[in-house]
Write the structure tokens for this entry.
Amino acid sequence: MNPIFDWNFAVEILPTLGEALIVTIQATVLGMLVAVTLGLVLAMLRRSPLRIVSWPVGFVVEFVRSTPLLVQMYFLFYVMPSLGLGLSPLATGVLALGLHYAAYCSEVYRAGLEGVPRGQLEAATALNLTPWRTLRDVVLPQAIPPVVPALGNYLVAMFKDTPLLSAITVVELLQQSKIIGSTTFRYVEPLTLVGVLFLLLSLVAAWGVRRLESRLRIVFGGTR
């Protein structure tokens, strides 16, 4: 009688899952870099006093937030090549994750930016600081630290959304476990390992975000 969970088989497939895990981590890290960078740009543009700038940006943000990530992946993977923009499956997945979560991150940033006391901006104007120095030295040091926990939540959420990459032929962690299961007819071990790996890395990411939050609180604690 075969055991429900075969530890020898689990150890045997672990290196294969490890290779797929690297793809998953790459997609998450690169996608988050796109999201946090583009999200900040979108947030600042949406707060522009020029309606010709803020309204289109607001429409784009709401459109991206209101459409499924999977649909956006399909569009980038199947439609964009016909328009002359052909990317590899992994690059397409990173772009889709980054664009999708940039829309959410922009709202987080916007809340942080609007939380900066108006008096701080008036003081910067009185000191004759340039708009760039005001943003860099006054606004961002006060707006970013409070929103780090929310950004960290999106990091974990993006990590858990990486299985959608299999829809555009990226062999990430879950897809690799399904391939192993279909070839060996054993699904308990690969799926269990995938669940454990997702849990461990999510906990590590959450711990890292808490450490970053504490560090920023120390560095910028005296800013307000």
The domain at 7-220 is CATH 1.10.3720.10 (MetI-like fold). The mean pLDDT is 90. The chain has one domain: 7-220.
